[in-house]
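Help needed: design a sequence for this.
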């Protein structure tokens, strides 16, 4: 049985969280890091922007309300990370990597869905693209194979692939602060959002443990608790200084 690393992190800044995910991806690309699942939190509510988005309007609006902004290396639309369980999967395992973007996405979404169903949620995979024109809020639209409950999107993910490895990270919404979301996206762009606890009260720890069990079953792997390697830690610090702390990166000039 294959062993994967499990990192259960505390709350970090947006810059640090994105730098950790990127450092693990680069390490895995060069066989310097093991296949990993990381669960993590955010020290304050933080807006992450997809790497292809225009971000100036959101940056200025968030600055006004004291909400930090970070640009992801993955695509997709903006996510306000607040009351959620955030995960990242990094691997160069051919069993996942060779399935391509959509294949790997379907596998991981299926595992997350299985975990939610075991906990009693009436969740399902979206079968058609639901997009609200003009909305840059990730959770105000849904692509195929994204997880829904009561026609509301409860989990959103994005992926970055290199030659030999990929990163998929995403958010599973526990609760929704509509006032805070409206400050960023406007009232009209939060209509499709909902959290798991609107259906059933559940702790992040219970959700995480159930998802981990489904990953082990679905991928025939065993998790080993560990932290970042020296290579990843050094690269994370360099990425924070050289990339994630600069507004030029936020504005897409990279």
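Sure. Designed sequence:
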């Amino acid at each position: 049985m294959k062993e994967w690393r499990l990192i259960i992190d505390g709350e970090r800044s947006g810059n640090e969280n994105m730098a950790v995910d990127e450092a693990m991806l680069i390490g895995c690309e060069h066989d310097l890091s093991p296949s990993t699942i990381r669960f993590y939190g955010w020290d304050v509510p933080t807006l992450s922007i997809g790497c292809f988005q225009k971000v100036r309007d959101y940056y200025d609006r968030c600055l006004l309300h004291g909400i930090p902004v970070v640009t992801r290396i993955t695509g997709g639309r903006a996510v306000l990370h607040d009351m959620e369980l955030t995960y990242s999967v990094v691997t160069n395992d051919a069993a996942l990597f060779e399935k391509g973007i959509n294949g790997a996405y379907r596998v991981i979404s299926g595992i997350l869905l299985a975990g939610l169903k075991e906990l009693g949620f009436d969740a399902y995979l979206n079968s058609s693209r639901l997009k609200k024109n003009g909305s840059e809020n990730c959770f105000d639209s849904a692509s195929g194979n994204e997880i829904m409950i009561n026609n509301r999107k409860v989990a959103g993910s994005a992926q970055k692939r290199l030659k030999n490895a990929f990163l998929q990270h995403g958010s599973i919404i526990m609760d929704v602060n509509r006032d805070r979301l409206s400050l960023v996206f406007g009232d009209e762009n939060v209509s499709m959002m909902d959290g798991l606890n609107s259906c059933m009260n559940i702790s992040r720890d219970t959700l995480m443990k159930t998802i981990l069990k489904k990953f082990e079953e679905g991928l025939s792997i065993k998790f080993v608790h560990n932290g970042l390697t020296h290579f990843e830690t050094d690269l994370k610090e360099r990425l924070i200084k050289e990339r994630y702390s600069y507004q030029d990166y936020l504005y897409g000039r990279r």
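Residues 71 and 250 are 5 Å apart (CA to CA).
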